Amino acid sequence: MIVWLNGAFGAGKTTAAQELLDLLPGSTLFDPELVGHGLKEMLPAKRLDDVDDYQDLPSWRRLVVDAAAALLTEVPGPLIAPMTLLRQEYRDEIFGGLASRRIPVRHVLLHAEETILRERIALRDEAAPRGPDGPDGPNRLADAGGAVASGGVDEHDGVHEPDSVQERDGARTRAWSLAHLEPYQQALDWLRTDAHVIDTSGIGPRQTAERIAEAVRNGGGACDIVQTPEPTAETLAAGVLLFDEEDRVLLVDPTYKPGWEFPGGVVEAGEPPARAGVREVAEELGIRLPTTPRLLVLDWEAPVPPGFGGLRLLFDGGRLPDEQIRDLLLPGSELRAWRFVTEEEAESMLPPVRWNRLRWALRARAQGRTLNLEAGVPVG
Questions:
Q1: pLDDT along the chain (380 residues), means of 10
Q2: What span, in angstroms and rounded, lies between the C-alpha atoms of 12 and 289?
Q3: Could you give the CA distance from residue 360 to residue 380 in angstroms, rounded to a whole number?
């Protein structure tokens, strides 16, 4: 199990995590920020220039999942992860990856009012230890001058920088923390829905930890996210394109992986692909297709590590009448939203590989034919 402590900078995640180690037997502190520090040393400077936050690196999000899974082979757990996570799509990717490894997550939000957060941020530089292990350090890659952003320690030799440099970095850390208060407020709607909320405004770290421990023991913050095992070989997947009266195509937003997708899923052993598509549409949306959908595109997806590739099929599920669209159902543990979009809108929502597949499928539908693709390119 992982107990993920979320919240704005200054909410008290790190200090509460330290206290929680005494209250949850077998627990181990798991700091995802350390993964970011490692990437900073390994990735080319040109790549690091593209982002200013570890969380924007796909490699960070994947390595957080892999590191947690690996760590749980060494310790009994639970892992306690104090890390601000404000983008829902990143939450989906990380928690979905953990779910695929059968690792349950307890999501706990430590909340405090903005005035209190501002006071704590202002005082933290005076009380916090210098260096990357200070409480609730932000996960910037580096400041404009290349200094470590989370404190005043030179990561190459562990020697403290001069006080003037520490003061400079402290001011930048404080500015970074304050700048993230607005994104935190914007994320509160989904955070309160997703996580077990503990108000830390008037309590200390020990009391916060006690409330977290009680919530964990009572099942609080359990994420009922769908568990989709990661493939270990090539897979066969069937998607179904559904349209409204304006010929816009239906896309769905899965909770367990980033990006929009077509209704559908992996074809089970011994299952006909078209029937798998019909089954997935019924399970995901509550729609019973009256006829077997017609195949539009068969696309061989090349294996690109860490993915294994395989065959991807897209079927034409036809137009849905307005009354059926009104009755669309979403399983909260699997899909977060649905939307009918034009081809142009889909381009900005789908990953390039999926959008290319959709593009050819729409042309095959218009021409009344089936297209055979290899890595997104028609053949034959």
A1: 93 94 95 93 92 89 93 94 91 85 91 89 59 42 35 34 58 81 92 93 94 94 68 88 95 80 91 94 89 95 85 96 84 78 94 93 96 92
A2: 51
A3: 14
pLDDT reported for residue 101: 81
- C-alpha 152/C-alpha 120 separation (Å) is 19
Q: Pick the closest to residue 71 from 80, 84, 60 (CA basis).
A: 80
Structure tokens at 105: 């997550």
Question: Between 3.10.150.10, 3.40.50.620, 3.20.20.100, 3.90.79.10, what CATH number should domain 235-378 receive?
Answer: 3.90.79.10
pLDDT at 251: 95
Domain boundaries, the chain: 2-217, 235-378
What pLDDT score does 151 carry? Answer: 34
Tell me how far apart the alpha carbons of residues 274 and 306 are, in angstroms, rounded to a whole number.
27
What pLDDT score does 167 carry? 63
d(C-alpha 225, C-alpha 254), whole Å: 10
Instruction: Quote the pLDDT of residue 283.
Output: 87
Longest Cα–Cα distance in the chain: 73
What's the pTM?
0.62
Looking at residue 228, what is its pLDDT? 58
**Dist CA 155 CA 371 (whole Å):** 54
Hey, what CATH class is 2-217 in?
alpha beta
Distances (CA, A) of 298 to 74, 268, 281, 360, 375: 43, 17, 19, 10, 10
317 near 291, Cβ under 8 Å?
no
